[in-house]
TrEMBL record:
Name of the molecule in the record: Calcium-transporting ATPase CtpE
Function according to Swiss-Prot or TrEMBL: P-type ATPase involved in specific uptake of calcium.
Kinase as UniProt keyword: no
Domain P-type ATPase A stretches: 62-155
Alphabetized GO MF terms: ATP binding; ATP hydrolysis activity; metal ion binding; P-type calcium transporter activity
Transmembrane intervals: 12-38, 176-195, 215-234, 557-576
Catalytic activity: Ca(2+)(in) + ATP + H2O = Ca(2+)(out) + ADP + phosphate + H(+)
Membrane topology reported for the UniProt record: Multi-pass membrane protein
Entry's localization field: Cell membrane
Keywords on record: ATP-binding, Calcium, Calcium transport, Cell membrane, Ion transport, Magnesium, Membrane, Metal-binding, Nucleotide-binding, Translocase, Transmembrane, Transmembrane helix, Transport
Protein family according to the UniProt entry: Belongs to the cation transport ATPase (P-type) (TC 3.A.3) family.
Amino acid sequence: NVFTRFNAIIGVLWVIMLFVAPIQDSLFGFVILANTGIGIIQEWRAKKTLDSLALIGEVRPTVRRDGKPVGISTSEIVLDDVIEIGPGDKAVVDGVCVEADGLEIDESLLTGEADPVVKQPGDQVMSGSFVVAGGGAFRATKVGREAYAAQLAEEASRFTLVQSELRSGISTILKYVTWMMVPTAIGLILSQLLAKDNDLDDSIARTVGGIVPMVPEGLVLLTSVAFAIGVVRLGRKQCLVQELPAIEGLARVDTVCLDKTGTLTEGGMDVTDLRVLDGADERHVRAVLGALGASDPRPNASLQAIIDTYPDDGSAGAWRNTRSLPFSSARKYSGATFDEGDGAAGTWLLGAPDVLLPEDDPALAETGRLNEQGLRVLLLARAARDLDDPEVAEGVEPTALVVLEQRLRPDAADTLRYFADQDVRAKVISGDNAVSVGAVAAKLGLSGATVDARRLPAEREEMAGALDEGTVFGRVTPQQKRDMVAALQSRGHTVAMTGDGVNDVLALKDADIGVAMGSGSEATRAVAQIVLLNNSFATLPSVVAEGRRVIGNITRVATLFLVKTVYSVLLAILVVCSQVE
């Protein structure tokens, strides 16, 4: 904002005028303060907003000190501290699991993989991950800047400027103006000293007064004001612009890379179908699902979707839950035993069909077809054994298949359609499995090949060719996301990258425009030029429209200022020539 070509030119002329002329002749220099202040104030406001988001999301982990659990700030954690974690807790440092009671951790912000990972003692726990089920403790092995998430953030913290064609064009004009100003200034001052016989101070003041109009001050200031107005307008739509030229940058992109998790999908799941098996009573099945949901105090995403769809409304009668078995990714099912009111006890299981059913069961074939469409399938079955029996899953009576899908953002399809209408290509790149990502993309109307990124070539030119052919990419690592952005840029594309996880940080930083979700990790919000505070993907068309409005306005008035510059140069040359004669 301070060290620019414009500020250098006007600043030098301003300082000269302060020494040789009255202060009122130096008022043109205040355009430096206005132009610089607009950029600084906007970036300060953006930083203040991000700091408030970080404060709201500040985590106080529970650490064992002197055998007692104590809540402390993240900065107070030291090596070998034992940190207790439970459902909803965030790992703020790297460590090794020392205790695990059904511990399952969501690493989607690090890897993009939507499914939780089961942790056992000895397994690595990475900073930036969340506990979704169970509990446990881990010993800190890397803290502060050594932690995985902090290292990614530090690698992305190098300062870069948003490429702005408007500002680059103005800078080019100023460069040529500078070259014209030097000989013109020499000619003017010599003509004043020799022909007019003025004193030195008066000659310098007249010379500066003659060459200042050559600088398109109004165009530079108008550009900053137009950007600032655009930022304010977008701020009312819960869109935070951290760098003024980012508005223009997004309006010029021709390729947008989208992360699936958090951008195209929300965190939860939805029940799309209930397929009753073997003539079971659907009303009874719904009642059982409602009772199962009510029996688990800490439901995972799948069970929460079932609870939302089939709430426990008492239709199961006087059923009373006598024992519950929470879901575990290790055994892949949950269960509960109910006293059904007439003295009979019923044990029900809900889990993966391939675990609860024999290999030749026809329901497995149906499950496979649904899985190929990117859907998740759970089996509801009645068990003949007690819930605490290790073989409770053997010989169950299948009752229904519950079909679930990842919850799509309601605005995602319309936004993708908008980009397609604007000739902007969309590429979905995700750490999740390719089948799941492809299914989500298909539902949103994206056509094109689905590619497993593990098969992508490492060489940049070959990767660029594969990216031109494919649309959806799964199993993409954080480094691959970065390489994919670079490969697209090598083909001359202007690339925007959206994301919310730590795994997106490097790609966000290298993209021409980085867009982060307000609910995403602190690192992504810090490196992105645009932050969607309302987490609404539908805000992006507004940013594009605002950018094009700014570009159009500046382009229309630029001719006026450039004509003034040309006439100022010609007039100065004529003055020099006339004085010489």
